[in-house]
Write a structure and sequence with these properties.
The chain has 7 helices and 9 strands, in the order H-H-E-H-H-E-E-H-H-E-E-H-E-E-E-E. The strands form 2 sheets. The protein has a 7-stranded antiparallel β-sheet, with helices on both faces. A two-stranded antiparallel sheet has the order 4-5. It is an alpha+beta fold and 228 residues long. It has helices at 5-17, 30-39, 60-69, 76-93, 120-127, 135-143, 160-171; strands at residues 50-53, 99-105, 110-116, 150-151, 154-155, 175-181, 183-187, 192-196, 202-211. 35% of the residues lie in helices and 21% in strands. It starts with a helix and ends in a 17-residue tail after the last strand.
Length: 228
């Protein structure tokens, strides 16, 4: 039975509590590997599928990521859109010093994880004077379009994350896992699961995606607000 992205996060928690007893790094999922490297400072140098996101906005990782995932030609625009949106989110909101992206192909799906060590979603919104109940509430508000982006004196509605989730869960029959601070939110087409992660908080923000890309996905069908 296929492990979900939520199962992968729970596996990370087990590994972390076992003092990083890792035997085969190449078998780690993107969710686990990016967390261990960026969140916990573990060196996993033999992972060829991981790429750095540099604060200076170097974008060479994108082509390398896409090439390694072997995305079908008719769905390359899906991955291009998602990578562009999530990369921009990191640059515009996180104030990060270290970021990573990792993709991995499985027989029936593709997994991609983005992580940064920035200020996390709740702190980003608090810095903009938004009222936040907790870290899960902050994640949901960000998904629903609450944004800290301000240009020419106007606060913009943030649609990139919302569109990305809509494409993944409805267009690609996939799922999304977002961990930020002490909040964890797992989304599928039919369900939203949330929990507080006091013992294993994410120092910045993790966004993991699982996508089924065997059939062509028309991203323009999903560029509409997805209200959670």
């Amino acid at each position: 039975m296929e492990k979900t992205l939520l199962n992968e996060f729970e596996k990370y928690e087990e590994i972390r509590n076992d003092e990083f007893e890792i035997i085969d790094c190449e078998n780690l999922s993107p969710t686990i590997a990016t967390l261990l490297i960026c969140n916990d400072g573990l060196r996993l140098d033999n992972l060829k599928t991981i790429r750095k996101i540099e604060p200076e906005k170097v974008t060479t990782f994108e082509n390398e990521l896409l090439h390694g995932l072997e995305i079908p030609k008719n769905n390359k625009n899906v991955i291009n859109f998602i990578v562009h949106e999530l990369r921009n989110n990191i640059y515009e909101h996180s104030q990060f010093k270290r970021g990573l992206v990792m993709g991995k192909s499985y027989p029936d799906f593709k997994d991609i994880s983005f992580i940064d060590n920035g200020i996390n979603i709740a702190n980003s919104l608090k810095n903009a004077n938004y009222a936040i109940k907790n870290d899960c509430d902050a994640i949901l508000k960000a998904i629903n379009g609450l944004s800290t982006k301000n240009e020419l004196g106007f606060v913009e509605r943030g649609t990139g994350l919302n569109n990305t989730i809509n494409i993944v869960v409805n267009g690609c029959y996939g799922s999304v896992l977002i961990g930020s601070g002490k909040g964890l939110v797992f989304l599928t087409k039919d369900n939203i699961y949330m929990k507080t992660i006091d013992e294993t908080p994410v120092n910045g923000t993790l966004i993991s995606l699982r996508m089924h890309l065997s059939e062509k996905v028309d991203i323009y069908k999903y560029l509409n607000p997805l209200k959670l």
